[in-house]
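User: Sequence recovery, please. Input:
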């Protein structure tokens, strides 16, 4: 009887997951595992390979599992999961992609997106009201970036993208004033330049931009975190500009999800240790 009770307790230990296809590259288990250990919280955060064909069955199984607190969602499921979970925050009608699902005690599954707030966290102290901004890219990450920038009331936004039509659609979606240009266009004198494209990632072509038109107090923010010091960030640093790297957003979006899953914020003052772990 005692053994059975122990077993049941072990099975109901809280856990969360990250799902994707592929999933081996995800750094989320390292981040959440570091915080769980630092806080001494019982629980686990696992990597789970889920293919598009298996997505609905996975969600159905986890809905019935009281130990499962939820999951982070990565490529290629961020859009498809919106059909499988509740959406009280109207993520579908705004950002258009979910990266976090949280299970409620009654089994309801709430979908949300922590990428936008994670992106904005390092900029929160700045006044970007009316500031001209350049965003490179028009994919899922760019949607979260543009959503956050629109809420911050930025000024004209120039989107540089390989597919200009996609970029024009995003300006309209987020009610932003601005324009669209090809990737080799000259930069306007923007206060903030954000790379939300895959360019500069390991295995992808570099992002070659001439940063000369940016003012001396401009900030260059690259969402790419593999490698951490991208060619864009190196060029920005060489020009003496302030930079923000992709780990800030990665840790920021994870922090919000961690609190939703495990009911406590990540420990304070441990970011440098975590960054060292993530870049080891
Ligand atoms: P996505 O939806 O696939 O979008 C990719 C974007 O990159 C599109 O704008 C695409 O242009 C452009 N692109 C891809 N390959 C290109 C090429 N060869 N030449 C020109 N443009 C190219 O991907 P995503 O989810 O938005 O992710 C974009 C990047 O953000 C990735 O590096 C990802 O790792 C990073 N990211 C970081 C975080 C973080 O927490 N730091 C979070 C999310 C994403 P088209 O529109 O023309 O196809």
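Assistant: Recovered sequence (280 residues):
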């Amino acid at each position: 009887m005692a053994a059975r009770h122990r077993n049941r307790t072990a099975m109901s230990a809280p856990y969360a997951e990250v799902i994707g296809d592929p999933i081996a590259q995800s750094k989320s288990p390292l981040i959440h595992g570091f915080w769980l250990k630092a806080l001494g919280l019982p629980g686990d955060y696992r990597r789970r390979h889920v293919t598009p064909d298996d997505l609905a069955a996975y969600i159905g199984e986890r809905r019935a599992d009281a130990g499962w607190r939820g999951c982070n969602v990565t490529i290629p499921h961020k859009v498809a999961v919106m059909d499988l979970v509740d959406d009280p925050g109207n993520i579908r009608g705004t950002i258009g992609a979910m990266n976090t699902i949280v299970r409620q005690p009654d089994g309801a599954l709430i979908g949300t997106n922590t990428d936008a707030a994670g992106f904005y966290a390092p900029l929160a102290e700045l006044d970007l009201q009316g500031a001209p901004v350049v965003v490179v890219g028009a994919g899922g990450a760019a949607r979260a970036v543009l959503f956050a920038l629109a809420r911050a009331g930025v000024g004209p936004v120039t989107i540089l993208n390989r597919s200009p039509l996609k970029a024009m659609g995003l300006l309209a979606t987020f009610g932003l004033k601005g324009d669209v240009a090809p990737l080799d266009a000259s930069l306007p004198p923007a206060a903030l330049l954000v790379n939300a494209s895959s360019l500069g990632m390991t295995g992808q072509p570099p992002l070659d931009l001439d940063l000369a038109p940016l003012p001396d107090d401009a900030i260059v923010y690259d969402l790419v975190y593999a490698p951490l010091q991208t060619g864009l960030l190196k060029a920005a640093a060489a020009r003496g500009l302030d930079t923000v790297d992709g780990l800030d957003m990665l840790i920021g979006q994870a922090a919000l999800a961690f609190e939703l899953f495990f009911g406590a914020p990540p420990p304070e003052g441990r970011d440098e240790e975590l960054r060292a772990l993530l870049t080891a």
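The longest helix spans residues 246-262.
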